[in-house]
Amino acid sequence: MAGRPRFSLTTVVLDCPDAHVLADFYRRLLGWEVTYSEPDWVLVRHPDGGTGLSFQSEPGYQAPVWPERPGEQQKMLHLDIRVDDLDEAEAYAVAAGATRAAFQPQDDVRVLLDPAGHPLCLFLH
Question: Locate the VOC domain: which residues (predicted)?
């Protein structure tokens, strides 16, 4: 091979029970736009472009457990979202459909669960 081929990360895909429900949550949370939609797959992206988030409906989806416990569904990834104010951002996210995780490992990070149960972390910039 003469060199490394060009790679460009365009989207991160989250499996979930309903792609449209989860896409709508993240669209509202992040202020992004739906740029492509099919019955079981939706892409949202910042209006200025960049890496997007896609959501794929999976009939057998099982939500991860937070914090992880042996023998239970493990998370495969989580999203880190930088915010200006933790309390304000948490309240907004909860109003949009997130829930606060019972386990909070750090004072300067808020762990929330999106409507499909994926953990997401809000942190100050």
Answer: 8-125
